[in-house]
Amino acid sequence: MILKNYKGFFFLVTILIMLVLAFVQTGCKVYRFKDVSIPDTIKVVKVNMIQNKASYVNPNLAPKLTDALKQKIVSQTKMTQTNGDDADWEISCTITTYSFSTSGISNQRVNTNRLNVGIHIEINDKRAQKVNKYDVSRSFDYDGSMALQQAEQSLESDMLKSLTDDIFNRIFSNW
């Protein structure tokens, strides 16, 4: 009988500790949702046009990736976007790598090629007066019989989604 009371007591104490921790965690001045962590002082963001400084330039990638990143930030955060100088964070990205390589050979023929894309990210945190720099990269495989332009067209939607997610996660989820 006494053992039952101790079990109930320990259960109740455990629940109370968990509730206290939950309330303490909500007051840490960072709001979180969908695995996104943004300091509460950051309310306005400016996303500059993505620059393309790779040795090979896909002329469609930078403007479409810029638009996709802006849309993702609007839909997944509470931040307001601006084009002015009043931003708390200014995000600048540069496509640094856009290269092709053979990734698979069968019967002495290329059967798979790989497109490699690398992006350098800089976040100018005007409130903290510091610049954070990150790099992301992603590889996309495609059929070796496809011409480069065909591959770019067939991979475009996957590239935009994957690269946008990678940039967003690196900036807002500390991945």
Automatic annotation (TrEMBL):
It comes from the Bacteria. One of its GO terms (cellular component) is outer membrane. One of its GO terms (biological process) is Gram-negative-bacterium-type cell outer membrane assembly. This is Lipopolysaccharide-assembly. Pfam families: LptE (PF04390). Keywords: Membrane, Transmembrane, Transmembrane helix. The chain crosses the membrane at residues 6-24. It comes from Niabella ginsenosidivorans.
